[in-house]
Amino acid sequence: MKLWNPLSPDNIKDPYPMYESLRTRAPIFRAHTGEWVVTGYSDVKAILKDNRFKAGNKKDWIERGVTYFKSKDQDFTAIAKAINSFVLLINPPEHGQIRRFIMEAWKDHEVEQLISENVQELILPIKSLDSFDAVETFTSRLPALTISKILGVPVDEYVRLRNAGRQLIKVINPYISYKELVLMNKAAKEFIDFFRELITQKTKIPEDDLVSNIVRLNKKSNETLSENQLISICIFLFIAGEETTISFLSTTILNIGLNSKLKTQLTKRLDSFSDKVIDELLRYDGPVHLLGRIAHNDFEYGGYNIRKNDVITLCLASANRDQKQFDRPNEIDIDRYANKHLAFGQGTHFCLGDWIARKQAKIGLTAFLNTFPNYSVSNRIEWNDNLSIRSPKELRVQI
Ligand code: HEM
Question: Whole-model pTM?
Answer without folding.
Answer: 0.96
